[in-house]
Amino acid sequence: MSVKLIHRPRRLRRTEAMRRLVRETHVTADDLIYPMFVTHGSSEPIAAMPGISRLSLDDLCKEAAKAAEAGVPGILLFGIPAHKDEVGSEAYAEEGIIPRALRRLRREVGDALLLMADVCLCEYTSHGHCGILKHGRVDNDATLELLQQCAVAYAAAGADVVAPSDMMDGRVGAIRTALDDGGYTECAIMAYSAKYASAFYGPFREAAGSAPQFGDRRGYQMDPANAREAVREVALDLEEGADIVMVKPALPYLDVIRVVREVSEAPLAAYNVSGEYAMLKAASANGWIEEERAVKEVLHSIKRAGADIIITYHALEYLRSLQAG
Fold first, then answer.
1. How many whole angstroms separate alpha carbon 169 and alpha carbon 104?
2. Does residue 303 have an active-site annotation?
3. Catalytic residue among 66, 134, 248, 303
């Protein structure tokens, strides 16, 4: 006897046209931010991140123009300094790599892109930690003053958004105060609100030369086991004046993205970090996965979890795949 089926969900999966018609989640250029590394010297590829390079100022501008042409709303800059010292002085120097890059980009791309600048000291300090050291530990309050200087320097050079990633307590409020006092009231803050002490940052640390020379960052970045703490961190950053909040990394913390989405109406970013990127590249290079499809699944999972903004090194490749159909 044949079974009479009442429900046939497969009807809506039968063809690509039908799947497109009922698709729930869409990742478009408008959702993406492209992170970029800039250096004083010549461009050079990053071995752990195939397809990504430390870019000279000339090549940075060329790559930024490609991002604008692809429709990406903004880029997030990370600097490779000419020299490092105990207090990360190039991070906030007027002729430091990020202010130089921002001024050049503003001249060459105008308002075609949002210019975002990461605010942290780890790339710039000789010890590789995200703040000032006292007695072998990062001094939270002493670090705030330097983060303020970074943010003001970047806003003065043309940044639309500053993005503090250091995880110091009170840094959003300190930066908001410094920006407002300096007349940069329109410069927005995208806070790395829930930034975990993750194993997935390894390729970035190679790219930026920012690995700690001793110890680790678990004393200031979040414990990967915690989710409720992320809600508290987000609430504190919003109270202090953050315009956008972020969860980082993305893939191991999709549950955290979802929780934050449910408790906050603020724009929510998620950072699809270097280790997540490198894993897909390595698996693809070995023929273990189909890279284009895997990237689409990853980005859709982040958007589906609740992120409004996805910071990803896959941005331009993904958009090229969309245009190719």
1. 32
2. no
3. 248
Cβ contacts of 85 within 8 Å, gap of 6 or more: 124, 125, 126
Residues of 214-241 as b/e, b for ≥16 C-beta within 10 angstroms? eeebeebbbebeeeeebbebbbbbbebb
CB within 8 Å of 57: residues ≥ 6 apart = 38, 40, 100, 101, 104
H or E segment and range at residue 65 = helix 57-70
Choosing from 62, 84, 195, 281, which is the catalytic residue? Answer: 195
Residue carrying the six token digits 């390595």: 282
Distance CA 209, CA 40 (A): 14
H-only helix segments in 127-243: 140-157, 171-181, 202-208, 228-240
Query: How is residue 264 written in tokens?
Result: 């906050």
Alpha carbons within 13 angstroms on the beta-carbon side of residue 168 total: 30
Q: What is the CATH number of domain 26-324?
A: 3.20.20.70
Q: Does the annotation mark 296 as catalytic?
A: no
Q: Minimal CA–CA distance to 103: which of 66, 158, 152? A: 158
90 DSSP 8-state letter: G
Whose CA is closest to 192, among 119, 286, 255, 256? 119
Is-above-0.85 flag for pTM?
Answer: yes
Q: What is the pLDDT of residues 121-173, one digit of tens each?
A: 988 998 878 888 888 888 999 999 999 999 999 999 999 999 999 999 999 99
Domain ranges, ordered by start, for the chain: 26-324
- Read off the pLDDT of each residue in 306-324 and give the average, rounded to a whole number: 95
Which are the contacts of 137, defined by CB distance < 8 A and separation ≥ 6?
219
Q: What tens digit of pLDDT does each residue of 34-80 get? A: 999 999 999 999 999 999 999 999 999 999 999 999 999 999 999 99
Reply yes or no: is the peptide bond before residue 249 cis, omega within 30 of 0: yes
Which residues lie below 8 Å from residue 72, measured CB to CB, with a gap of 6+?
29, 32, 33, 34, 113, 315, 316, 319
